Amino acid sequence: MIDEGEFILLTGPTGCGKTTLMRLFNGLIPHFHGGKMKGRVVVGERDTRKVKPRELALEVGMVFQDAEDQLVSTTVEKEVAFGLENSGLPRSTISKRVEEMLAGLGLSRLRRSFIPELSGGETQKVVLASVMALHPKILVLDEPTSQLDPLSAEDLLTVVRRIHEETGTTVVMSEHRLERCYHYATRVLYMEEGRILFDGRPEEVARWCGERDKAFIPPVSRVFLKAGWEEIPLTVNQARILLQRHACMNGDPRKDRDGSSLPQPQEEVARAKGLWYVYPSGTEALKSLDMFLGKGEHKTLMGENGAGKSTLLRCVLGLLQPSRGKVSLFGEAPRPERLPQLAPRLGYCPQNPASYFTRSSVREELIHTMQLRGQGGRGAVEAVDEQLRRLGLDGMADRHPRDLSTGEREKVVVAATTLPPIPDLVIMDEPTRGLDYESKQLIMDYLRDCKEGGSTLLVATHDVEFASGLSDRVAIMGDGGMITDGPAAEVMSDSLFFSPQVNRLLGDYRQGVIREEEAVAILREVRPR
């Protein structure tokens, strides 16, 4: 039961049923999605089995995990106004609410932008604005920050929290990046295999999860648990207060980690020089950008939504042709006609995994990828089965990819992208969308093995914790250009927003701390005895 005015956070492994549960609140189940349903769901005093979703739309506003599926208009302003117009609200009310949402979510500069040319994060913010403009009594958010840059995610959650606190709106949200929102919740529900296993206050659930596998709690909580502390903070501020109370960080900060720059590889895999890309609408996505990617590097691109990260990846692959400047891939200019010959050497994980699938089962999808690389027969089948097992997908090999959760689909694309023989270059656009902590760790371990095999990796992501655990180098983009490019420990240590929780906690004490294992070692040193 959810009481009016609560802030409920749903957490649990990828594919545990969070999205399915959320679809019950607005009647999408059973009226739209197939399957069998037992029991009932009551919103207010209305049984959702007897009320159509359109009748619940003003009461229950939902943002889908795949925000692209909710778009119906051509421009941002029209999209935000669409639901209000369908509700028959006065023009003055519509204009006021549209302006309010555009300003509140930082979309004013995009009001007349063509929606297909927006980045994934910008698209997600547009959908959020269109739902929140309806002022629903219940706001259902399915991973609302999965494609947002760190600052946009903080802004969004601040708006959601204000709406919750100042209007009494009930919020039900699922999220895997728990460092952003765990402390906002009044209750946390932990799910596994379609069941709610624990329901309690955030600190209660953190303690319960900590006694099990430590996966479904914020990173700052996890490192304290792993270091053997009795008290478990939920935020960086709580952790700082805890350390100060125990006088653990007194004295001069210790800057004893080697902060010297890593040598940049000399053998070139890809390069951009003076790169410009202008979309047909006139939007300048890339502006005189330079980038070097050396053999064996694991480089992560970060930056705000719309900075040009996805456009850069597509230019490197040859899917987009530069307006000006040069791009080289394996020593030649990338062109669409080269891609078939380069298929065995390239792996590409697109931002929207649903755009990848052409076959009716997960196993067939991976076998098809092997065939495109010129491999078939029993050897290909054995390689596919081993890949499925390694990435924890063997239990869904015969399922249709489109029946999987977003996180499960993302794992399937990663599995297909990195099938053996390991590609020389793997390019990934937001590869952790919808993934829980354990799935991300599994993928990180596998990508490290790929590096040992000589593979080069170029990733665009907003997942700061993933980037810090994986990257050799981090490049931050802004306004279509490259702002900085350097060793991960240097770039992510000198940042307020593009840094992991453990760095914000311990960066003043130990230079260059960006990985959880480093933080655990420090906290063990200073733990009260």
Automatic annotation (TrEMBL):
Query: Keyword annotations for this protein?
Result: ATP-binding, Nucleotide-binding, Transport
Q: Which InterPro entries match?
A: AAA+_ATPase, ABC_transporter-like_ATP-bd, ABC_transpr_CbiO/EcfA_su, ECF_ABC_transporter_ATP-bd, P-loop_NTPase
Q: Where is the ABC transporter domain?
A: 1-218, 270-504
Q: Does the keyword Nucleus apply?
A: no
One Pfam match: ABC_tran
GO molecular function annotations of the record:
ATP binding; ATP hydrolysis activity; ATPase-coupled transmembrane transporter activity
GO CC terms = ATP-binding cassette (ABC) transporter complex
- Under what name is this protein listed? ABC transporter domain-containing protein
Q: What species was this sequence derived from? A: marine sediment metagenome
